[in-house]
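**Reference record**
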Amino acid sequence: DVEATVKRFKTDIHNCVGFIQEPKKLKETIREIHEKYLRHSDVIEIVGDDADIQREFARQREHLERTVASLQKKLVKDAEIHRIDNVRIIQ
């Protein structure tokens, strides 16, 4: 059943190629294929997954931003310590 569906899908996509010079007809045909093969429950699941992905991305970005800020502070502190050590050596 899955193989037959994939074969029909490929055939429908192949038939769309004939409309490559007619953007409106191509768009309408693609829309029909989309409605034919995609279930509404799949769309809801994809949107839910997308929200989870966005939250995870935001969490990781926040973590990385905190890490960068911490490393920048450490760099400034280490640079100051080295500067003070160099001044002591010179004196």
About this structure: The helical segments are 2-16, 23-37, 40-90.
